[in-house]
């Protein structure tokens, strides 16, 4: 039961994070047209990783 609740929480957090990241990227896209796409991707991945680590640390 605990694992189910934890998995559901993680899934919800991941969805929220994905939505937030997408919104951030969409906001940043017109601001930084000079920034190459791969740089933006790397930045997004880094943000995702940090957010995942924070979520895991909070959940633990």
Protein model, in words:
With 60 residues, the protein is mainly alpha-helical. The protein has one domain. The chain contains two helices and no strands. Helix 1 packs antiparallel against helix 2. The protein is elongated, with a radius of gyration of 14 Å. The chain starts with a helix and ends with a helix. The mean pLDDT is 77.
Concise account of the structure shown:
This protein is mainly α and 60 residues long. Helix content is 88%, strand content 0%.
Mean of the pLDDT scores? 77
Instruction: Give me the Rg, rounded.
Output: 14 Å
Shape field? elongated
Largest sheet: none
Helix content: over 70%
Number of H/I helices: 2
Q: Into how many domains do the coordinates divide?
A: 1
What is the terminal separation in angstroms?
A: 16 Å
List keywords for this structure.
60 residues; 2 helices; elongated
Q: SSE layout and pairings?
A:
Blueprint: H1 2-31, H2 37-59
